[in-house]
Amino acid sequence: MTQAGRQGSPRNSSGRNSSGHNNTPGRGTSQGGASAGGFRGGSAKRGAGFGSDRPHRAPKPREERFIDPDQAPEARTGGGAPEARAAKPSSRKPAARKPGAKKVPGTPGAPKQKPRTGAPGAAASRAFGSERFGQNLGPIRKPSRRKGPRGDVPQSELHDADGVRLQKVMASAGVASRRVCEEMIAEGRVEVDGQVVTELGVRVDPKTAVIHVDGIRIQLDENMVYMVFNKPKGVVSTMEDPEGRPCISDFLRNQHGERLFHVGRLDVATEGLLLLTNDGELANRLTHPSYEVPKTYLVQVRGPFPQGIGAQLKQGVELEDGFASVDSFRLVDSTPGHVLIEVVLHSGKNRIVRRLFDAVGFPVLRLVRVKVGPIGLGDQRQGSIRNLGKQEVGHLLASVGL
């Protein structure tokens, strides 16, 4: 074997020639078998593996991180300030590669958008946004009334030197935190006695002031009680019954000595929503026809139900005490022999729904009231009673101009 062959042999593990120079690839030599196109001994052991057929790739030069001599030793090793540590690549997927990123928001499979804190519509900036009930009551429905000017009002008109700061009254009522309440006032979303307030120094009397936030009335009287009762069939809509039949008081476990009114009536065979309260003014307005509070019923009749009956009910049917009609009519479900219909009307006449369907030739088999104004039963268990949330109370009061 020649001298050049012995220098390039794998057995010559030192990789040095007789003159003592290093012929390892990558050090600039081209003598014998130590060239880049020949023997890959040293680099193959450290890289792709001994005897690998992959071509040799020179390692990438390592970037040296700048070390400030005046910096603390713990910061140089990554244990100090975050800005001194080496930047790590993010493991998050780009927004365009996430599943459903190209789908329109709101469609199936589209990613859910998280509300921004403090943005309009976020829970942190809504009145009573942290409550369980009343989140989806829709826009405020209230009768037409004269509103105050939309702008700054002098504090002298509303300011009560002996009162409490407006933001503190709102926070105590559970509207939001005091900081968020201050933001609501500055944004012109708060009304006191019908006038918009934008100054944070206003003091009010909680016993007499009427406060609205985004149109929602804030009930400051803690003695007021508002409840929803899901009345079963066979229960009389009274607090006491001389005949001994089941009545509302049989389902009230803790009355706390309060005298409660039931808003309206449901006949013995009708099921569904009854409002209970000790607020006499609210009870009077909810039952007064001038406020036209809508009530929603589910009606079950025998089928098939011919076309044209719904239009007839909306146009009006003559009864023994005058004409009556429904505000809306919708077919919910149809099974062999039965039809389920949803009707909405604001009339408070006695047995009005049953008499309307009797007049068109379809007697009611089952009747359930599921909604009064903005308040609905939802999934409330039959025979149960629950307290209304403050947001629900605010919607209810606003719907009758309180």
UniProtKB/TrEMBL annotation:
<dbReference type="InterPro" id="IPR050343">
    <property type="entry name" value="RsuA_PseudoU_synthase"/>
</dbReference>
<feature type="compositionally biased region" description="Basic and acidic residues">
    <location>
        <begin position="53"/>
        <end position="68"/>
    </location>
</feature>
<dbReference type="GO" id="GO:0000455">
    <property type="term" value="P:enzyme-directed rRNA pseudouridine synthesis"/>
</dbReference>
<protein>
    <recommendedName>
        <fullName>Pseudouridine synthase</fullName>
        <ecNumber>5.4.99.-</ecNumber>
    </recommendedName>
</protein>
<dbReference type="InterPro" id="IPR006145">
    <property type="entry name" value="PsdUridine_synth_RsuA/RluA"/>
</dbReference>
<dbReference type="Pfam" id="PF00849">
    <property type="entry name" value="PseudoU_synth_2"/>
</dbReference>
<dbReference type="InterPro" id="IPR002942">
    <property type="entry name" value="S4_RNA-bd"/>
</dbReference>
<dbReference type="InterPro" id="IPR042092">
    <property type="entry name" value="PsdUridine_s_RsuA/RluB/E/F_cat"/>
</dbReference>
<dbReference type="InterPro" id="IPR020094">
    <property type="entry name" value="TruA/RsuA/RluB/E/F_N"/>
</dbReference>
<feature type="compositionally biased region" description="Low complexity">
    <location>
        <begin position="1"/>
        <end position="23"/>
    </location>
</feature>
<feature type="compositionally biased region" description="Basic residues">
    <location>
        <begin position="90"/>
        <end position="101"/>
    </location>
</feature>
<dbReference type="GO" id="GO:0003723">
    <property type="term" value="F:RNA binding"/>
</dbReference>
<dbReference type="InterPro" id="IPR018496">
    <property type="entry name" value="PsdUridine_synth_RsuA/RluB_CS"/>
</dbReference>
<feature type="compositionally biased region" description="Gly residues">
    <location>
        <begin position="29"/>
        <end position="41"/>
    </location>
</feature>
<keyword id="KW-0413">Isomerase</keyword>
<feature type="domain" description="RNA-binding S4">
    <location>
        <begin position="164"/>
        <end position="223"/>
    </location>
</feature>
<dbReference type="InterPro" id="IPR020103">
    <property type="entry name" value="PsdUridine_synth_cat_dom_sf"/>
</dbReference>
<dbReference type="InterPro" id="IPR000748">
    <property type="entry name" value="PsdUridine_synth_RsuA/RluB/E/F"/>
</dbReference>
<dbReference type="GO" id="GO:0120159">
    <property type="term" value="F:rRNA pseudouridine synthase activity"/>
</dbReference>
<keyword id="KW-0694">RNA-binding</keyword>
<comment type="similarity">
    <text>Belongs to the pseudouridine synthase RsuA family.</text>
</comment>
<feature type="region of interest" description="Disordered">
    <location>
        <begin position="1"/>
        <end position="163"/>
    </location>
</feature>
<dbReference type="Pfam" id="PF01479">
    <property type="entry name" value="S4"/>
</dbReference>
<dbReference type="InterPro" id="IPR036986">
    <property type="entry name" value="S4_RNA-bd_sf"/>
</dbReference>
